[in-house]
Every structure is written in C-alpha cells, then in structure tokens.
Design brief:
Blueprint (H helix, E strand, L loop, with lengths): L1 E5 L3 E4 L2 E3 L14 E3 L2 E6 L2 E5 L7 H12 L4 E5 L5 H4 L2 H7 L1 E7 L21 E3 L15 E6 L2 E6 L10 E4 L4 E5 L15 E2 L9 H11 L9 H14 L3 E4 L4 E3 L1 H14 L6
Parallel strand pairs: 6-7, 7-8, 8-9, 13-15, 14-16
Antiparallel strand pairs: 1-2, 2-5, 3-4, 5-6, 10-11, 11-12, 12-13, 15-16
Length: 275
C-alpha cells in the first residue's frame, strides 16, 4: 500500500507487520502492528527511493513502485542503513526496474546480502556518500547531498544517534526529515490503520512509550550520557524546522504541531533520568 505524504512529490510505500517478542527492535510485550516504510521522492520523471522496505512486503513495494514510476522505469536508491529492513528488496527491484544510481555509506557493502547482484551491473552505479574524511579525521562527513533532479536536493547527514553507519535525509521541498531508525515508536491497531500521526487523529503517545521503543533498539542508551544527543537533536530540528518526520519503521509524523510534540517527547525520553 502507498500513501501520499506531501503534494510536493513524496509517497510512502510498504506494509505492516505484527508485533511480538520475535521482533527484536520493539519493547517486549508489544502488540499491534507497525508500518515498514520506504519513501519515493519524485521530481518530474526523476525518482529517488529512500530504503526498500522488508522482504516480506516485497511484492507490495514492487507493484506500488510500478504504479508510481511505470513498469521497468528508472529509479535511484538511497539506503539510510545497511540493515535488512532497509536493503532487503534491492535485488528484486533491480530485476524489475532500472536502478540508475545507488547511494550507500559506511564500509558495509549492501551487495554482500545477495547472490546474484553482481550480475545486474549495479556495482558501477553505486555512489559512496561518505567517502571523504573531514579535517578532524572523522570517517563520516557531516554534510552530504543527493541531487534527485535539477533544483531538487536531498541533504544527507550522519546522525549522532546511531549504531551501524546511518544517514538522515532532509527534503526542503516537502519539509520532511527522514530519520531512519529513530522516531519509530508509532504503532498501528490493524495492518490497514491510518499510518500517519497528524492533526486528524487523537495522539496519546507518552514519553514512556517513546523511551521504550528507543531503548529497545539502543539498549545502551539508559547507561549513556545523553545530553549531547539531546543538544544535537534539538539543534537539528531548530535548523530544519521540519513539517514531517519520516522513519523507516512506525507512523509518519506529519504537521508542525505533531512534529513539535514528538520532538519534545523524544527529548524527554533522552533525559538523564529516563530509563
């Protein structure tokens, strides 16, 4: 299933999976469903797919992509993380569509997960988005960008909060911040439930819920000094002033009031006494 996020050429694709203790990145005892998201940025005939979703939703993602860009159409891809919930559908997408460019970062090669990817001529189309060291010697640049189309740029940065190499994206055209595996606390009652948190729904999300989801993925956080993360997060949102938060899992948070509320919830979850 796909849903329009913004009239400026932004669509969310993917499906939903049932929560249980078999899902390692949610709090134990979780129930309900959670959306697995990938996002299509479109500018005219140019398209950038941000992540590819889970393999279990592969048929849905590919069929929806065909509806949006045409069967066999050209698309560029950007992976926010080298983890299977982001890269699983690379090979089937490459078999059905023309992947024009593939943007990845870090030292982990996303091709290692697939048997036949070397046959589909993608290695020459891969572009490393973090290949230059900073003057401080850091292995990751703090500012990168991807040209979706002339005049349409996705700014990319490496977030302070991460495990593996992780990248956030900023699309100024739609005011959307793509946050990969952060802000993933949105849960659905059914697989068909509305996948947005916005001013059309009653939002009863609590600090405790946000913290539980955050600490399930980043289990070391309760023992960490968290004020640098809070400062970085507050500064990032102040600089961008996003109108939507688009995580790789969970509900899309849309509208300035909803974004502000969930930023405040996240900052509270990162308080030194939150655990």
């Amino acid at each position: 299933m796909f849903n329009k996020v913004h009239d400026g050429g932004l669509t969310v694709l993917g499906g939903a999976y049932e929560l249980s203790d078999n899902v390692s990145w949610v709090p134990r005892g979780s129930t309900g469903y959670q959306a697995s998201n990938c996002y299509l940025l479109s500018e005219g005939d140019a398209h950038l797919l941000i992540d590819s979703g889970m393999a279990v939703h592969g048929t849905t993602v590919l069929d929806d992509l065909a509806t949006l860009i045409g069967e066999g159409g050209g698309v560029s891809m950007f992976f926010t993380r080298p983890e299977m919930d982001c890269v699983s559908n690379l090979e089937p997408i490459a078999r059905r569509f023309d992947i024009l460019r593939l943007f990845t970062g870090g030292v982990i090669n996303p091709f290692d997960a697939f048997d036949d990817v070397s046959r589909i001529a993608l290695r020459g189309r891969r572009q490393q988005i973090d290949g230059t060291r900073t003057v401080e010697g850091d292995a990751l640049e703090r500012a990168m960008s991807i040209e979706v189309a002339p005049g349409r740029i996705l700014d990319v940065q490496s977030p302070l909060l991460r495990l593996l190499p992780t990248f956030w994206g900023w699309d100024a055209r739609t005011g959307t911040l793509f946050t990969s595996d952060t802000f993933t606390h949105g849960v659905l009652a059914t697989p068909e439930s509305y996948r947005f948190i916005d001013d059309t729904v009653e939002d009863d999300t609590t600090v405790e819920q946000v913290a539980a989801h955050l600490f399930a993925k980043y289990e070391w956080l309760p023992r960490a000094t968290k004020y640098p993360l809070r400062d970085w997060l507050a500064s990032t949102f102040e600089g961008y002033e996003p109108e939507a938060i688009a995580p790789s899992r969970g509900s899309v948070i849309r509208g300035r009031d909803a974004v502000r509320r969930h930023l405040d919830l996240m900052l509270a979850a990162l308080a030194d006494d939150a655990a």
